[in-house]
UniProtKB/TrEMBL annotation:
It comes from the Eukaryota. One of its GO terms (cellular component) is plant-type vacuole membrane. Its main location: membrane. This is sphingosine kinase. It is found in: Vacuole membrane. It is a peripheral membrane protein. One of its GO terms (biological process) is sphingosine biosynthetic process.
Amino acid sequence: MEKEECLLSDQVHSNSHTTEATLSAGGQLRWGDRRLDIEKQVLGFSVEGFKIKIRAVVEAGAGICCCGGQSTLIRKTFVLELLSNDSLRIWTQKLQEYLDSLGRPKRLFIFVNPYGGKKSASIIFQNDVKPLLDDAKVEYTVQETKYQLHAKEVVQSLDLAKYDGIICVSGDGVLVEVLNGLLIREDWENAIRIPLGAVPAGTGNGMAKSLLDSNGEPCAVSNATLSIIRGHKRSLDVATMSQGETRFFSMLMLAWGLVADIDIESEKYRWMGSARLDFYGLQRIFGLRRYNGSVIFVPALGYESYGEPLDLENKIMIDDESEMKSEDGVVRDREYGYQGPEVDIKSLNWRKIDGPFVSIWLHNVPWGGEDTRAAPDAEFSDGCLDLIMIRDCPKLALLKLMTELNNGGHVKSPYVAYLKVKAFILQPGPRADDPTKAGIIDVDGEVLARGKGAYKCEEKTLMSYDKLLIKVDQGLATLFSPI
Ligand SMILES: Nc1ncnc2c1ncn2[C@@H]1O[C@H](COP(=O)(O)OP(=O)(O)OP(=O)(O)O)[C@@H](O)[C@H]1O
């Protein structure tokens, strides 16, 4: 192995021993039998007398847990005592220079949702996030969310120049609100460049799980916080869902049919905790519903064989995107702000599949929740959404398939079509067995539309249960990421 250039080498006291300490140009700090990779492990340092106190994270040994209960990381302080003033000055200067060269975020705006998940986000912030940020000397402003859409409201008028990132200690819901808040700003083009960070503290932590799993890390609070402190970034596709003038910006997924029904209707069993999904999932499989309707999509390269080319009637529908009108009285965002990607949808190679369908699922990232590897091949910024589609499936096969959701094995089932699409139109219809009842369209864990006779159909939604156009803007948003 090539020997690294040594920047500094000095005698130090550490743990009552005198030993040689070295700092390499590549940021490796070594003394005795210890080694720290500054970029990966060191949060910051402070100086007391001749002592440099290095705040770091290290892998926990077997059986040690901290930071949210399942972490592999623990905070640790290492003390190096220099033997002269000159050595101290040069060591602190070189360490600081190295940390400064890493381009880490210095000021963060942090949302904490005290209401999400097990209602423990405030404690998670206090006990597990804050100490790491303090060790890294990151400045932050904390805003607890007080009601639904509060985060979206705050982000709309936030002075973004003051911050290097916006962090959500929450589930996916608040993160999606932040995305929507940024994109309806007048200065959205600049605003959307701010990196967003997800610290898992909700029921649905699909984005945090997807990010950490992409680097083989557990979906733990400490891992997520460390990845934010280290400041690596990656881009993320944003899907614009539109119905006439009404738009919603999505970063995770859309579900219609079985998955949406389980996700939303199981609310009534919330008292069961996460078991509600399995319990209600079983009910829905035994009383399986199939929905009429169709999906029209632009297949990505390599998936052109799925579906049929459009007939004349549907071609006209594509020609007249304005046909997709929203109902009167729905909330419309102001005219300025992001209008969705500029794609000439008429020029695209659309194809169509007719229902009835058991389930339609569109995914931007691999994990829909910590236990749901919905779209194992999904990539963060490939400009595509992964479509997971079930038209018909015997109940036993469906049951088996649902048990494989946690490892992504379901997409190999002969009853599942799994493909990548660049644009998508959902034409949702009523249940095949009961035309008086329609379904639910679930986007990023929230209800976007409810059809007639659907669960809680009297509740107002942003869009109507009608044609929905989805376009993808490749890499529009930026996320803090472990790699
Ligand atoms: N103080 C609050 N009271 C009520 N709702 C809130 C509050 N703060 C945020 N919310 C809303 O809570 C919803 C869920 O938030 P989040 O995604 O963080 O948690 P979650 O646990 O994943 O969600 P859920 O419990 O709904 O599955 C969001 O729609 C958000 O607007």
